[in-house]
Every structure is written in C-alpha cells, then in structure tokens.
Design a protein that fits this description.
Layout: H1 3-12, H2 16-19, H3 25-28, E1 39-43, H4 51-63, E2 66-71, H5 76-84, E3 88-94, H6 101-106, H7 138-152, E4 159-163, H8 177-180, H9 197-207, H10 221-244, E5 249-253, H11 257-264, E6 275-278, H12 290-303, E7 310-314, H13 321-333, E8 338-342, H14 347-356
Parallel strand pairs: 1-2, 1-8, 2-3, 3-4, 4-5, 5-6, 7-8
Helix pairs in contact: 4-5, 7-10, 12-13, 13-14
Bound molecules: zinc ion.
C-alpha cells in the first residue's frame, strides 16, 4: 500500500468519511488537507522499569501518535529512553503548591494566607498537601526560577511543564463539593488567597487603595486583576528562563479561560508559553463528552493562535473506549493540536488514540 493509499484508508475510519464524497481518490485527495496531531502523556516514572520495557513502551506511544511525555519526576533513564524513540521528554513540575518539608520548615513566611488570616504553612485548605506559595514575593519567584534553571540545564530534558501554577481553588469543581461537604456558591474566606503583607502592600502601591478598606474584597475587580497578574508574572519570568535555554515551556491548567479565572485565579491566555494543556476533565464538572469540544473552542478562541492547545483528557472519566475516542474527536475537531492523556495508556487506549486521530481536515 502506498503512503497515499494508507492516508485515504485511514481517513475513512474517521469523521471525514461522512463528509467527503470519495468518487475517486486521485481526484478527491486534493480536498483533504493533512493535519498531524501531537499527543502527550502525563506520567510518573517508575524507577524499576527496565531499558527493554521502556524502549518497547515508548515505541508503541510513538506509533499511536504520542510525541511527548511530561514526567512528574526526574529519571535520566526514562527521559533518554523516550528521546531514543523520537519523543520529547519534558519535566512536569509542581509550581505554586509546594509541600516539601524542607521548604515548609525553612520558609513558612513564603506561604499564602487566606482572608481569615490563616497560612497554608500550618493550616492547609481541603487536604494536607495543599501548601500554596504566595506569588507576590520576590523570594518565591527567585526560588522557582532557580529550580527551572536546575531542571533545564540538563541536556536530556527537552522542556518544562508547569502544574499547580495558580492560586488555591477558591471554588472546587462541583463534583468535589459532596466529597468535602462544602457548598461553594460564593467565595468563602478560608479558601480565598492571598492576603499576606506583601500582597497587601503591593496592591496598595499599585492602586493606592488599602485592601482592608474594601468592604467586599472578593468582589473587587482590581484585587482580582492584581492576583491574575501575580501568577502571570511568575509564569512569564519562568518562560524567559526556559527560552534562555531555547527550550519550550508548557502548563497544565484549568479547562477553560473562564473557569480558570473564576475557580483558581488563573489567567492562562496571557501567558508566554509554547503550548497549553487545559485539564478538560468533564467528569469533574459533571459534564458530558461533548463539553470537551465546547471547552476547546473557548480556549482556542481566546488564545487567538498564540500557541497550541492540547486537550487534557482524564481516562477514568470515560466509560469505555468508544467514549474516549469520541472525546478525542471532540477535541481535535474543535481546534486542539492534540490531546494529553492522564491515566494508563494501555494498548487499547493507544489504538483508540491512533484511530480517533485519523480524522482529517477538509
Ligand atoms: Zn501574598
């Protein structure tokens, strides 16, 4: 089979089959514009994996259309094994949520403080591992920059992927309200950050207004914007570091620009990145698979082609492979440059990914 024949045959398996009148492939092939997608996998490297196993695993990833891996930890063996199979190997880094004991003990003053005056250093919200740093402190910025330097100076690391790059959730996804026995139809003070002295004084210097003189700070547009900008500054400075190494920087973010700002004060369409992976986890929001397409549409619209969007899909949210395939198609049809998979990329998952990505644009 020639490569052109393969291309047409594959396209028949996708959505284009219902839309393109194939009266003769040599004529109608010109109607098809080939578009290749770039898929990703989020994973935590298991140090017990053997070289043979990794070579085979990553070869299968590549054959299914995966082009990059976000590794939650450093493991030179995994990074090099992935690269040997043609994949990009990026380091996935927890950014603002930092619960490591050494940092908590050395710098409790770097942690964010809620509207009740409680610090994440000794009173974390929701769960014990929620230890958010304050994005307004220059020391925090410098600390994160030095970490990105340490990661990217390694020759086997292709890029940096920021996670937890935001404030603590002032509003949780609705699916979690029952879990935590919290009804968050308004912004509650114990989840609203950061009211530390640095944030207060910087806000006053910027707007000339004392935060404590604002009756409803949770409703202040300037205060909201200040906090968007605080995280934007962190990201855009980390982007400068990454680009200094000529390496890409991406991030895992909340599913749409609107939800990101509202729930976690994350303004990701204003970041200077090379790609973004919104976690379009429909189950978390009690939404259907078709909402994945809506979320991608909104993100792509506000990004305005500044950088590609890869739709983050949460495997446990899909009832079966047919539904997962539909989720992939929803993402790709609405403008995603690929998907990023959270969950185990089993052979079944990989073959679904390959098949669903065979959709060609007309
Ligand atoms: Zn602060």
């Amino acid at each position: 089979m020639t490569s052109r024949r393969k291309f047409v045959a594959t396209s028949l398996l996708g959505l284009a089959a219902t839309a393109v009148p194939f009266s003769g492939e040599s004529k109608d092939i010109t109607l098809l514009k080939k578009k290749s997608y770039k898929h990703w996998v989020w994973t935590n490297p298991d140090l017990r994996d053997t070289d043979e196993l990794l070579a085979e695993r990553y070869k299968q990833y590549y054959q299914a259309g995966v082009r990059g891996i976000f590794f939650e930890n450093d493991s030179e063996k995994h990074f090099r094994a992935a690269k040997a199979q043609g994949l990009e190997a990026h380091r996935w880094m927890w950014t603002m949520n930092r619960g490591e004991k050494t940092l908590l003990e050395a710098h409790p003053e770097w942690y964010a403080i809620n509207r009740k005056g409680e610090s994440c250093a000794d009173k974390p919200p929701y769960v014990n591992y929620y230890r958010w740093l304050c994005p307004s402190k220059p020391e925090v910025q410098a600390y994160l920059e030095s970490q990105v330097h340490d990661i990217l100076k390694k020759d086997y690391i292709d890029g940096i992927h920021l996670d937890y790059i935001r404030f603590c959730d002032v509003v949780l996804p609705v699916n979690l309200w029952d879990n935590y026995h919290i009804e968050q139809t308004r912004e509650l003070p114990e989840y609203d950050y950061c009211y530390c002295d640095t944030c207060r004084s910087k806000f006053k210097a910027w707007r000339g207004t004392d935060l404590s003189s604002i009756q409803y700070p949770e409703a202040s547009l300037s205060w909201r914007l200040f906090r968007y900008n605080a995280v934007n500054n962190i990201v855009n400075n980390l982007a400068k570091v990454a680009h200094g190494y000529k390496k890409p920087i991406t991030a895992a973010v909340f599913p749409t620009p609107e939800i990101a700002r509202r729930n976690v004060r994350q303004d990701w369409t204003n970041w200077n990145l090379d790609g973004i992976c919104p976690m379009i986890y429909h189950g978390f929001y009690k939404e259907s698979v078709s909402w994945i397409g809506d979320a991608v549409t909104e993100g792509v619209h506000f990004l305005n082609s500044r950088f590609p969007l890869y739709a983050g899909l949460y495997l446990p949210d899909f009832k079966n492979m047919e539904e997962f395939g539909e989720g992939i198609k929803q993402a790709l049809q609405h403008g995603a440059a690929g998907v990023s998979i959270f969950g185990n990329p089993s052979p079944e998952v990989l073959s679904t990914l390959k098949l669903a990505s065979a959709v060609k644009m007309i």
